[in-house]
Amino acid sequence: MDEQQIPPDDISEEELRAAYEEQLKRVRVEDVIVQTVVSLLNLGGRKAGLAAGTEDEKDLDQVRKAIEGVRVLLPQVEDVLGPDAKQLRDVLSQLQMVYAREAPGAPAPEGAEPPAAEDPNPPDGPGPAQSSGRLWVPGQ
Question: Rounded to an integer, what distance in angstroms lies between the CA atom of residue 62 and that of residue 56?
Fold first, then answer.
């Protein structure tokens, strides 16, 4: 015997709530975090103007916030993602590179390493680690 589908207009609030509760039983927190990470990466790409037709949506502050959000959330689900985590890390890296290129005067996303400043007066000869023999230098 075929079950009849109840048209959406005929669903009571109680039935709707019960269906929602049933869905919540099956959802895992990790699933929501993964969805959030993917959404942040996609939105970050749009706000960076990377997708065709989104150049007018460029908002580097939003890109920075997307990067920071992914950096916090991704480690929470890397074990669940397995090999797929690398793909998300690669997308995050690309987004970070775009941000660094587009916003050189803007603050770096939290946790990002600032670029090393070059010493205007480099020392003559090898440094202490190299001269002690503790630093491996190719060809030496």
Answer: 13
